[in-house]
């Protein structure tokens, strides 16, 4: 089993970063994410908490032999999230559904105001990657390979989110400029 942990501070407020998260896909930084489908979404009328369940289709570059063995290179991830606008926290849990009997990848993400600077957003990510014992002596190699891929995807995911934040800030600026022009 391999563990992945990362913490990052976005130099933007929580409202902007949490909005950017919902607009993150598609973007040119993360072309492996091909489609996101909202399966269920509800707002608790008492707490204001938004609960969402999404199915994410991911297409990875995999060796031709694996494509033939497993029937393709598309995989699916189930994601649950809770956004609490009062507490300014967004928690996301995801689990791969495709080939989870061979390799299980569970991810946990938290977005919250940075305790050191409340105008910034702290991003905390952890993941657990576990190859099946059926892979015997290859399990560690599979976990290592997937951990490296996960680490690379996590880095470009942050870049993609920053790209969306920039778009949101530009849109806000355009609205302000239009109001001033009136």
Blueprint of the fold:
Layout: E1 2-10, H1 14-22, E2 33-43, E3 50-59, H2 64-70, E4 74-84, E5 89-96, E6 103-114, E7 117-131, H3 139-181
Antiparallel strand pairs: 1-7, 2-3, 3-4, 4-5, 5-6, 6-7
Word description of this protein:
The protein has 182 residues and is α+β, with helices and mostly antiparallel strands. Helix content is 32%, strand content 42%. The protein has 3 helices and 7 strands, in the order βαββαββββα. Strands 1-7-6-5-4-3-2 form a 7-stranded antiparallel beta sheet. Strand 5 and strand 6 form a beta hairpin. The model has no long low-confidence stretch (mean pLDDT 89).
* Helical run tally: 3
Largest sheet data = 7 strands, antiparallel
Q: Evaluate the radius of gyration.
A: 18 Å
Give average pLDDT, whole number: 89
Would you count the extended β strands for me? Answer: 7
Beginning-to-end CA distance, first to last residue: 60 Å
What order do the SSEs take from the amino end to the carboxyl end, as H and E? EHEEHEEEEH
Helix content: 25-40%
The neighbouring-strand order within the major sheet is 1-7-6-5-4-3-2
- Strand residue content: 35-45%
Structural class: alpha+beta
Uncertain runs with pLDDT below 50, 5 residues or more?
none
Task: Report the principal-axis shape.
Answer: elongated
